[in-house]
Amino acid sequence: MVMRPKSIEWTLERLRKPMQLSFDFAREPTAVTPKKASSPKGYTGLYGFHKYWGKKPYEPLAFVIEQLTDEGDTVLDPFVGSGTSARESLIRNRRFIGFDVNPVAVELTKLLISPPDYDSVRSAFRFIERSVKDKINGTYRLNDGRIASHYLWENDTLTQVWLRGVRGGGREELAPTAQDIDLVEEYASYRSEHIRAPRFFSNGRINAHANLSISDIMTGRAQRNLDLLLSYINELPPNVQMPMKLCLTAASGQMTKMVFAVTGRGKMTGKNSAKVEVGSWVIGYWRPKLHFEVNVWNCFERRVSKLLKAIKEGDPLQGSIICDSMARFYEASSRSWVECAPSQTAIRSVREKSVNLILTDPPHSDRVPYLELSELWNSILGFESHFSSEIVISNAKERGKTPDVYSQAMNGFFGILSSVMRDDAFLVLLYNARQAARWRFVSQIIDKSGGLKYFGKFPCNYSAGSVVQDNRKGGLKNDIALVFGKPDADSRRLCQLANIPNWSKDAPTK
Predict the structure, then answer these.
(1) Would you give per-residue pLDDT tens digits along the chain (510 residues)?
(2) C-beta separation of 413 from 344 below 8 A
(3) What residue ranges of the chain are covered by domains with CATH 3.40.50.150?
């Protein structure tokens, strides 16, 4: 049993009490112009809080919502992802239905549409800080008492120990001492007690295999320190427990052996530098030969700081109630319903002809195997991933997620979607793929639309660079927003969409 000092008990009791807020949320959301929709900015605020795969910029989604719906209308996103469509719908006083097979996606969406208040998160962080910061930092303590920030490894050999924040914000690079080696060995055999054993598949695309374990990805020291954080987060009241766990998942990539040591910067310009810099977890489960082990407390603290900064001035959706069932959503007891469920199952609970706009970014074949890449996060959260229900193409042959299975699933699902749309509703599909075969289900929507008319398309540009897309041969630079409507859809609503640069009525071709 964990014994806590009285000051911590007081903090927990304070966290259980509802906070009284004095923020003014009467302000209107900033309208989005066609130019802004076409040239989105980078991810900021809550949108920059978590590194969820394949996030979409808010500007084009907000613009579509503004132009194709009215206040009080219902927006549906059956592949809700990180929750951008949900947040932009509610901010603009629309109602929202969303579901996703990925547990961490659903929790992130809930955070975006009902953010915690600043004081609760700050108090929760202070409680955790008082409880575990010194214990965690003790595992990185040098001979002179200072705390290391980074360890540079070459395969299994520790080569350097770094201290950050010295001499006006610089760094000090030290050779490992006997104490540094002793600390590594002390925790080398530690195995996490709080992280669910992750399930991986043999997928060369993301450098995973069926026998991959958490110890292949994290050092024993990192696992021990992550366990310490989880043990105290689990002591928190429910209203702040999940936000703090999401901070932990957002920071977890930097706690792994997958943090690249970046070398040779400037070689393309002839100014090659010998300086080693800290990279990040990019995508997949690569453990580079030269990599960093980063102080776990620093990783967690930085991510909590991002969340606190995002909610410091309050948020218009803070305290929003999310329905616990579809029935209550239709009783109008709240403006949103979000469920962790396969889209092909959850769609059957949506009432026929009840949706004004379907705005979604469906899985793009094999570009992002969401559940496989999110397995580290879901393991930390203790959620099970229902891999068999995911619509995706996976290079893991044992999953049986082939291109034909993908096309059949997408055809079947989009065949159902039309039935939940009102007779004047719109469907906006954000999609792109390199191979022609991956567009087969889109062609089916256009050719055998079940009452849907194709209106046109516009490029939905990414708002941030991607190491994968920017460096991969043939990497895609944008999605394409495809606009459809039911027979009674008012085409006059498309006037502003037509002002987006490169709007076209041509059907997509691949």
Answers:
(1) 344 554 555 455 555 544 433 334 445 777 899 999 988 988 899 999 998 988 889 999 999 999 999 999 999 999 999 999 999 999 999 999 999 999 999 999 999 999 999 999 999 999 999 999 999 999 999 999 999 999 999 999 999 999 987 666 689 999 999 999 999 999 999 999 999 999 999 999 999 999 999 999 999 999 999 999 999 999 999 999 999 999 999 999 999 999 999 987 655 555 666 789 999 998 899 999 999 999 999 999 999 999 999 999 999 999 899 998 888 999 877 899 999 999 999 999 999 999 999 999 999 888 889 999 999 999 999 999 999 999 999 999 999 999 999 999 998 998 889 999 999 999 999 998 888 878 888 888 877 656 899 999 999 887 555 444 444 455 567 899 999 999 999 999 999 999 999 999 998 766
(2) yes
(3) 32-112+332-499
Phi, psi of 123 (to 5 degrees): -65, -40
Provide DSSP, 261-317: EE--TTTTTT------EE----SS----SEEEEE-HHHHHHHHHHHHHHHHTT--TT
Q: Which residues pair with 359 in a beta bridge?
A: 428
DSSP single-letter state for residue 198:
P
Count of helix runs (H) and strand runs (E) in the chain = 17, 13
Please, which residues have CB within 8 angstroms of residue 403's CB and are 6 or more apart in sequence?
365, 393, 437, 438
Of 301, 209, 222, 299, give the one whose Cα is nearest residue 257.
222
Strand partners, 117: none
Spell out the SS3 assignment of 8-63.
HHHHHHHHHCCCCCCCCCCCCCCCCCHHHHHCCCCCCHHHHCCCCCCCCCHHHHHH
Closest CA to 338 of 351, 350, 322: 322
Distance CA 184, CA 158 (A): 9
User: Cβ distance 94 to 62 under 8 Å?
Assistant: no
The tokens of 299 are what? 């990783």
328, HSE (Cβ side, Cα atoms, 13 Å)? 11
**Strand pairing class (421-431; 259-262):** unpaired
Q: In the block, which residue shows the tokens 């042959």?
A: 397
Measured in degrees and rounded to the nearest 5, phi and psi for residue 458 equal -150, 150
Rg (CA), the chain: 24
CATH topology of domain 32-112+332-499: Rossmann fold (3.40.50)
Query: Are 490 and 453 in contact, with CB atoms under 8 Å apart?
Result: no
Token digits of residue 97: 């239905």
> pTM of the prediction?
0.91
Closest CA to 39 of 360, 430, 459, 362: 459
